Amino acid sequence: MIRFLFLTGAAIIMILGCSKEASSKKRGDPVREGSWVSASILDEGQDSDKRQEFTQSNIGDVVHENQPKNSADSNGIEELIEKLSDMNPDHLILVDKTHALKAGFKPANLVDLALYPEISRSRDGLYLERAAAEALAELSKAARKEGITLLVSSAYRSYDYQKNLYDSYVEETGEEDRSLAKPGTSQHQLGTAVDFGDVTESFADTRAGRWIEENGGKFGWSLSYPRYPPGEYMWESWHWRWIGVDAVRLQDEFFEGSQHKMLHYLHLRD
Question: What is the Rg, in whole angstroms, of the alpha carbon atoms belonging to the chain?
Fold first, then answer.
């Protein structure tokens, strides 16, 4: 059980998330995730098990910007963090280009989404961790009541599967790209992230895209790479991660709706 302690005045380096995914020819899964708009000041080769180390100039640059915006309300944030301490710690793991999952990481209790008739799937063989699958079923059920279908295009992807996708892309194009989700850096490996629709920016303008933008948080779903506030990642309107209702409240009330900023904050306090 992870217990997060609220500390003020700590230096945190935050990278907001967004990306533009491109469909792979293999089973329709996208390779891109969390595309960088510009180079991060973090070292991509950094050991993800170690905390970030900053120079004095780094600290001066990031302290003010990356503290919770409502940090004066210490009671409110502590209450929410206390609730999160009862969650499965895997549901709040920080995964990005500087915090990679190990090759052997596999979520427990993976279930086939075919077991949930409420969930629309683009193909067979889509799995999620059970808690996320049940939350997705509730989300889909609520959408259907309003005549909206949320089509799931991609869900859990193992480290090896992501590696095959990445290697195939590099082999086909003859180049590596910082915007590609390398094995271990994709939220899909957590088993709590899904892609909806056609996996393009146009999803945001569909009825489904507008509906989930307005209602996803009520069911614990969070847009991993939002358009606002702008950051170092590109926007992905189709990529959503289940983090639970309380975590969504925490990100919205104290981190301007930024999932990545909130998770990074909690990661540094683990």
Answer: 18
Task: Scan for tokens 């926007």, then name that residue.
Answer: 235
CB-based contacts of 108, cutoff 8 Å, min separation 6? 90, 129
DSSP 15: -
Largest pairwise CA distance in the chain = 54
Residue with tokens 């409240």: 249
With a cut of 90, say whether residue 207 has pLDDT above it.
yes
Domain ranges of the chain: 56-267
- Of the candidates 109, 77, 99, 84, which has an alpha carbon nearest to the alpha carbon of residue 1? 84
Strand order, beta sheet including 151-154: 120-121, 151-154, 193-196, 236-242, 221-225
Q: What is the mean pLDDT of residues 143-164?
A: 97
pLDDT of residue 203: 97
Q: Is 103 helix (H, G, I), strand (E, B) or coil?
A: coil
Helical ranges in the chain per DSSP H: 56-66, 74-84, 130-145, 159-173, 207-215, 245-254, 259-267
Q: Are 196 and 209 contacting, i.e. CB atoms less than 8 angstroms apart?
A: yes
Q: What's the CATH code, domain 56-267?
A: 3.30.1380.10
- pTM of this prediction exceeds 0.90: no
Give residue 255's Cα distance to chain centre.
15
- pLDDT single digits (tens) 56-79: 333 233 333 445 666 546 778 998
Contacts of 29 (CB under 8 A, 6+ apart): 23, 154, 157, 161, 165
